[in-house]
Structure formats: C-alpha cells, structure tokens
Design brief:
The complex is a heterodimer of chains A (270) and B (417). Chain A is α/β, with parallel strands linked by helices and 270 residues long. Chain A has nine helices and eleven strands. Chain A folds into two domains: 142 residues, D-Maltodextrin-Binding Protein, domain 2; 111 residues, Periplasmic binding protein-like II (D-Maltodextrin-Binding Protein, domain 2), CATH 3.40.190. In chain A, helix 4 links the parallel strand 6 and strand 7. Chain A is globular and about 60 Å long. Chain B starts with 7 loop residues before the first strand and ends in a 5-residue tail after the last helix. Classes of the chains: A alpha/beta (270), B alpha+beta (417). At the A-B interface, helix 6 and strand 9 of A face helix 2 of B.
Chain lengths: 270, 417
C-alpha cells in the first residue's frame, strides 16, 4: 500500500461506513491520491480531529461543518459534497387530512423533533418555521434525542418522529425530506397515513471540509479525483449507493447560512 | 429553480395518485420516456404530493427543478438524472416468444437457438432471455463448457422427468407388502436394502455436480435437479418397501466400497459413464427382473416406477457420452482409464455379493423348495447374462467400438451400480 498522502475522518454511524471507505480508499489510491480513513464515534470528536490535524479532511454533517468553521474562525474550505447534499430540505408531516391552512395554525399543538444535534430534524425546523409564522416555543415539543453525536445520520430519531405522529402522540413532526422518502420507499408502516404539509427552503447538508492551511495542490488533486468518481462503474456503484451519492459536486458556503444563523440563535456555537 | 417550458419533454397527470400509493410506479414508467437531462412535468391536485415529490426525485436520482401552483392544483418539474438505473444495455425488443407445440411450451424449444459452447461465466443466475446487470458477484463455475456436459435431447428429458413424477407414499399398493411369507419377505428386505443403499450413491453423485454447473447451462441444471429428486424418491420407496414387511436387511460393506468409488470420480463425463451408463444401465435390468419376479404388488410397483426414471438417467448418460466422444474422440482414453481406476480400487470384489444373489434367488423362488430354487437360480443366472448383453449394447450406443465396449463391461462386472 502506498503511504497515504491524506487522512480522512468520518463518523461510524453504521457498519456500512467501513464498506464505503474501504472501497473509496482503493479508489483514491488508484486515482493517485492515497487516502486513509479514520473513523470516529461522533462528529464532535471528528471536528476536534480536523482542528488538531489528526485528520486532513472531515466528512462532516452540516452541523459539524458549521461548528468546525466557527471554531476555525472561518478558515476552512469545502472540497465537495453529494448531489443530494445540495438541495436538502426539512419537511413537516402530519396525519392525512389534518394539514393546516398555514403552519402558524400549529400554535399550541404537539410538535415532534429529532435529535437535538440534527440540523434537519431539530435545529433548522424552528428557524424556518418561525419565518413562516410559527414560533415553536408556542408548541409543546416532543424531542427524540437518540443517537446523539451522529447529527441525525442514522435516521433513528426521525423514525421516532414519524411514529409519534402516526400514533397520535404528536400532531406534526419535522424530519428530512430524504429520510421521509426513504421511509416511504421502504414501506415503513408509520408513514402510510402521513402527508407532507410543509417543506423548508433547500439548504446544504454534508461536505468534505479541510482547514485553509492544507496544501492547495494536494487538496485539488483529491477534489478532482472525488469529482471523477463514476456511478456507472459497477465496482463503485455499491459503495456509492451506500453513501447515497450518484455524483459528487463542488461545494460552497452559500447553503449553510441558514444553519449558521439557526445555531447562533439557539446558542449552539461556542 | 426554474425551467424553460421548452425543456419539458413529457407530461404526466398524477390525478389522485400519491407516493407510496402507486404514483412512484407511474413516475418510473414516465421517466422511461424521458431522455437523461430531459424534464418531466407532473400535475397533481395534491399539495402534499407536490411537497413530497422533490424528496422522492432526489432519492430516485433525478433533480427537482421547478414547482408552481395553478388554479386546479400543482405542477412539479423534475429533470431526469443522467445515471443509468440498471448497469446493463437496453432490453431486447419484444419478440414472438418460443414456439408452442399444441399449446405446450417445451423445454427443448425455449432457447430458440444453439447454446453457446462456452456460456458467459459471469452471467450468474440470469434466467434464459434475461439481460445481466454489471457489477454482480461472480462465481467460478467449474462445469461451464457445453460440449462435455451436454446431451442433445436434455430438453426433452427434463420435460419427461417433470411429467412422470410419482408419489412413493400413495402410488404404491402398500397393503400388498404385508402378506408375504417369512422366508420370502426376509429376502425382499435384503434386496430392497441393497437397492436403497445404491440409490444413495445415485443421488449424491449428481447432487455433487449440480452446484458446479454454470447456470447458463440451465437445461443441465434442471436435469441434474430432476435426477437428484428421482433418486431421493427411489431411496424413499425402497426403504419403505424394506420396512413395510417388518424384516430388515444388511447394508453390505462390499456394496459401500463399490459405491464409494463412484463418489471418487469428479469428472462429469467419466461419472456419466460409470454411474448413468454402466451403473444405472445395469440397474435397469435388475429392476425389470424384480418387477417380473416380485412376490407382491408393492415390490413390483416400486421396481416398475423406479425403472421408468432410471431409463431417463441411462438415456442421458448415453446421449452425453455419445456427443462427447463424437466431438472429442480423444476422450475415449480417459473414459476407459476412469473405469480401470474404479476397477483397480475394487480388486477385492469378485462378483456380486453372495448375500445379494441368495436374496434375489429366494425372492424369485418364493420358497426354499429345491425345484423352486433351481428355477429361480436359473432365472438369476439369466439376469446376469441379460445385464452383460445390455451393457454391451448401451456401450456401443455410446459410440465405443466392440472391443472397448467389452473391456468396459468386464471392468464393471463386480458392480451392479
């Protein structure tokens, strides 16, 4: 094995992460940018590792990225993101036939939210709902703080959210459009009688983040290799499917402004 | 998010369909008519569906590009993704399908062409006519070359095998096995034990080859499956006949030794010669003899039904050897060597076990009276001659010359199976 030129950190939120990165490790080696991966149990530890140089690249959730960028004083660069990360969104679901005229009508009702460190299922819903006229502090919040540290990657808290709504313990629930579609596709019984009543504007989700100090030529080579990854390559498709990506795109900061504002509002940036 | 109306290449009205309730099926079918990069316009009266469609689109590999509300509902524009859904070329155009014979679809007719000599080893379990997707796990099929595995009429044999199935619990008049006298029944139990013991080998040998066959040789897979199934029923029926009369027989060590040498043969064609042509061929004569001389209707029925199956197995063997040695005459030498190797391992056997010959004779005589025994002994001697004559005939049908056929037959003499 060629000595790795880069060390990438990812969070092991599921055993498939090993399958994904074992394949990608071979891919990057073949592409001439040998990259080793180091797994962490939570995003807070991963952010620490990017900051202290244990890893060069962090495969971050949006929440982790915003925290990292804040702690690095804005001296970070985004090396790429998945197609699905470019128009991530939060949806509000309710039992069929109960959609309000406006989300403002949900004042005083029970609202289910996912893990408190999940951008899409807990941090952004109050931010965007407030702009559409619902102050969530006026709701009774039912929080499912499961898998903390994973920032909602596992989908576990979102499953609790849809079950709470389907079972009548909550009137409405917030989760990512991606997980709601996944539950639909997997015929999760709880979603059968739910419908989407509201959808947030699009925002960005995960990205590969590096510190500004990382060698430009090296990061550029890695970035080019990332973008060249081909979903039509049968040896790559299974790993790309597990990662939920068909095509990698360059990233930028624009789609993180809302989360940054929300985290600031909610005093989550220290 | 906006799209030029000119980019819309297809429109679909979802009416009251919802995601999770059939809309995704309509959308998948609609996207088949849209080229990659083209835009599908979806109309829905449901705001909930319109709000959910972007998430569905991303998951399906497409890109939501625009959404607007109209007086009578909602319009969602989705750009078809550029990645292929299935890593394979397009499916062939619809064709006429295989020919039917008086409304029947025969296995011999389903291929509609010659089987390739070396089927694609990576196609895996792709059924006939299917297009394989790239990226599937591959297997190293040990038996993949058509010419030494095939029999020209394997399709017909497969159909015969499924058309002639029978039930060993219900198709045998088992009550008839209850009234046989003690002496005869003891002999029947020994003969049936011997038959069942042999049928184990007849099952284990094809079963061992089955998982090694390239699935693209599907007729051979079906054939071996039927062979294994037949032998399972033979084990069942002869065991049941042995048990039905209350007596028990010996599973003889010499029989076990003879059978173990069949399991040692790992070449398909050589095994076809040793098991199908020589072993099961000889068994045909034995089963016919038992049917003729059976003391009861249950024994006769068991032998008759097993005989019908074994005829197919022998037919396959002859067909397979004949094809193999016609295509590759050099194959005769290793085939003879396989029979010689088997015989060399069986030097301790000098003929059929006396225990079996005695049981066959008593079963035939149905008494211990000297005149009856004399007649029965003559019948058993005649059986041996019939076996040898028919063995030679079958070997010649395989394409062996007279001298080779004689040599192979002599090598087989100490064995039944």
């Amino acid at each position: 094995m060629n000595a790795p030129e880069l060390r990438l950190g990812a969070v092991a939120y599921h055993p498939r992460i090993v399958t994904i990165w074992e394949r990608f490790r071979i891919y990057f080696a073949d592409a001439g940018v040998p990259t080793d991966y180091i797994l962490f149990s939570n995003y807070e530890r991963l952010v620490d590792a990017v900051l202290d140089g244990t890893v060069d690249i962090g495969w971050n959730t949006n929440t982790a990225y915003v925290a990292l960028d804040h702690r690095a004083g804005g001296r970070t660069r985004i090396l790429g993101m998945r197609d699905v990360d470019r128009d991530w969104a939060t949806v509000l679901v309710m039992r069929k036939g109960q959609a309000p005229e406006s989300v403002a009508d949900l004042t005083g009702r029970v609202l289910a939210l996912g893990s408190r460190d999940s951008g899409h299922a807990a941090i952004l819903p109050p931010y965007y709902l407030a702009r559409d006229g619902l102050d969530v502090t006026s709701c009774r919040l039912s929080r499912f703080d499961t898998d903390l540290g994973k920032h909602g990657d596992t989908g576990d808290s979102e499953l609790h959210v849809v079950r709470a709504v389907a079972g009548g313990e909550a009137d409405a629930g917030a989760l990512s459009a991606a997980y709601f579609s996944a539950f639909r596709a997997e015929s999760v019984p709880a979603v059968a009688d739910l419908e989407v009543v509201w959808r947030s504007p699009d925002y960005y989700h995960c990205n590969f983040t590096v510190l500004d100090s990382l060698d430009r030529e090296l990061s550029e080579r890695w970035f080019r290799a990332l973008l060249a990854m081909d979903y039509d390559d049968p040896t790559l498709r299974p790993a790309m499917d597990l990662e939920g990506v068909r095509r990698w795109y360059p990233g930028d900061r624009d789609g993180y402004a809302s989360l940054q504002a929300a985290m600031r509002e909610q005093a989550l940036l220290s | 998010m906006s799209v030029d109306p000119g980019q819309v290449t297809h429109r679909v009205d979802a009416e009251h369909l919802e995601l999770g309730g059939g809309l995704e099926i309509l959308l998948a079918a609609s996207f088949e008519r849209v080229a990659p990069g083209g835009v599908l316009e979806i109309r829905t009266p449901s705001r909930a569906v319109a709000l959910e469609l972007p998430g569905w689109a991303r998951r399906a590999g497409h890109e939501p590009v625009d959404q607007l509300s109209t007086r009578d509902g909602h319009v969602v524009m989705i750009r078809r993704g550029t990645s292929t859904r299935i890593l394979a070329g397009p499916l062939p155009a619809r064709d006429a399908g295989p020919a039917l014979r008086h409304g029947e679809l025969h296995t011999a007719d389903w291929r509609g062409g010659e089987l390739p000599p070396a089927p694609e080893p990576r196609a895996g379990f792709a059924p006939l006519g299917a297009v394989s997707e790239s990226g599937a796990p591959t297997h190293d099929w040990q038996l993949s070359r058509r010419d030494t595995l095939w029999a020209d009429d394997v399709g017909e044999l497969v159909d015969q095998a499924s058309g002639q199935q029978w039930d060993a619990s219900r198709d045998i008049p088992w009550e008839a096995a209850r009234g046989v006298d003690d002496t005869t029944e003891r002999a029947v139990a020994q003969v049936m034990t011997f038959l069942a013991q042999n049928e184990y080998a007849a099952l284990y040998v094809p079963a061992g080859f089955l998982p090694k066959v390239n699935p693209q040789l599907v007729e051979l897979v079906l054939w071996l499956g039927s062979h294994v199934h037949d032998e399972a029923r033979h084990i069942e029926v002869f065991t049941k006949r042995s048990l039905a009369g209350g007596h028990h027989g010996y599973a003889l060590a010499s029989t076990e030794l003879s059978l173990s040498t069949l399991l040692d043969e790992h070449d398909f064609t050589a095994s076809s010669l040793l098991l199908n042509v020589l072993g099961e061929g000889t068994f045909l004569d034995l089963l016919r003899f038992i049917e003729t001389h059976a003391p009861d209707a249950a024994t006769a029925a068991a032998a008759r039904l097993a005989h019908r199956d074994e005829r197919r197995h022998v037919h396959f063997g002859i067909s397979n050897i004949k094809r193999s040695v016609t295509i590759a005459p050099d194959l005769v030498t290793p085939l003879v060597a396989a029979a010689e190797t088997r015989a060399a391992k069986l030097v301790s056997l000098s003929g059929l076990s006396p225990v079996l010959v005695e049981a066959l004779t008593i079963m035939t005589a149905q008494s211990l009276q000297p005149p009856d025994l004399s007649d029965a002994a003559a019948d058993v001697r005649a059986l041996m001659q019939t076996m040898e004559r028919n063995r030679l005939r079958r070997l010649q049908a395989c394409g062996f010359d007279t001298a080779t056929a004689r040599h192979l037959s002599d090598l087989h003499t100490p064995n039944l199976m």
